[in-house]
Design brief:
By secondary structure, the chain is of the alpha+beta class. The protein is 43% helix and 24% strand. A hairpin with a 5-residue loop joins strand 8 and strand 9.
């Protein structure tokens, strides 16, 4: 049986002689396969060439983006350093305010508010970020931001406590009988018992005496409210002021009073004038300070003028 074959007739242009060539199906298939392989190979080479070009372009863009990211991280770290320095200055001021408010300083370890890196097992996100320099920078920045937030919160709480304490302390200082009520010479100090100059026997002297001419102004020793203006036997004309916080001052032997019951007065405000009323050997002011109703030495409250100012 004869083998099948294909005949290819080649007809030249013009008047040339035609030629026929016999080709077996196997050869035709081989030619078609070869051509197909060449086309596929060419397509593959072109595809990989284009892909490589795109990849290189994307790589350049990625590198440029990483450079910009590194610049932004550096800028953010600089800003973080500036904020940290500012917080350090604020913390120093906070210590001064706490001192004025009578509060204990914040422990240095507590003030750091747990500054440090992440602890425990890392999350997948942290593990992925830690594989590159930019990612590591992002992780550090996040940790620093969290630390700054804790420090800021600590400072805010500290300022609130200091402000509240300072407000109370200022109110106490305003109501503290810290000045000598009149100008003169101290002739008698505070004593639980002393020889009375008139009765010539030992009696308590629950205040101090300041000799001064009649009419010398008597000032309130601190802010408060006038609770009494009355004549009381041996004390003569007396003015009493309640300063709150358990403190009361009394001013005796006055010649006249210039305030009335219920009147609010400020430290240094005139309330009366020195006199010789009651039982007294000469014009003077008898001045008392009572703590929760108990007489105490007034001089323990009197402060130097430069401190009061």
């Amino acid at each position: 049986m004869s083998r099948r074959h294909w005949t290819v007739v080649v007809v030249p242009p013009g008047t040339g002689q035609s030629r026929s060539v016999g080709v077996s199906p196997r050869v035709v298939k081989s030619l078609i396969g070869t051509c197909a392989a060449i086309v596929i190979a060419a397509f593959a080479v072109g595809y990989f060439a284009v892909s490589k070009a795109v990849a290189l372009k994307n790589l350049d863009r990625l590198e440029r983006r990483n450079e910009l990211l590194a610049e932004e991280l550096s800028r953010s770290n600089d800003l973080m350093a500036m904020i940290s320095d500012s917080l350090a200055v604020i913390a120093e001021k906070d210590e001064q305010v706490r001192l004025l408010a009578g509060l204990e300083p914040v422990d240095p370890d507590v003030r750091l508010a747990g500054i440090g890196g992440p602890v425990g097992a890392w999350t997948e996100r942290e593990q992925i970020l830690s594989e590159g320099r930019a990612g590591q920078g992002v992780l550090r920045l996040g940790t620093d931001l969290e630390a700054l937030l804790r420090r800021t919160s600590l400072l805010a709480n500290s300022f609130d406590a200091a402000a509240e304490s300072l407000e109370t302390r200022v109110d106490m200082l305003l109501h503290l009988p810290s000045i000598l009520p009149t100008q003169g010479w101290r002739t008698s100090g505070w004593s639980e018992m002393r020889m009375h100059p008139i009765f010539h026997e030992e009696l308590p002297h629950p205040g101090i005496d300041v000799a001064a001419p009649i009419g010398t102004p008597i000032m309130a020793a601190a802010d408060g409210t006038v609770t009494n203006v009355f004549t009381n036997g041996g004390y003569g004309l007396m003015v009493a002021i309640n300063h709150g916080h358990g403190l009361v001052t009394r001013y005796a032997h006055c010649s006249r009073a210039v305030v009335h019951i219920g009147q609010s007065v400020k430290r240094g405000e005139k309330i009366a004038e020195v006199g010789n009323s009651g039982i007294a050997t000469a014009p003077h002011l008898h001045y008392e300070v009572l703590e929760n109703g108990r007489p105490v030495d007034p001089t323990k409250y009197i402060l130097p003028k430069y401190i009061i100012d």
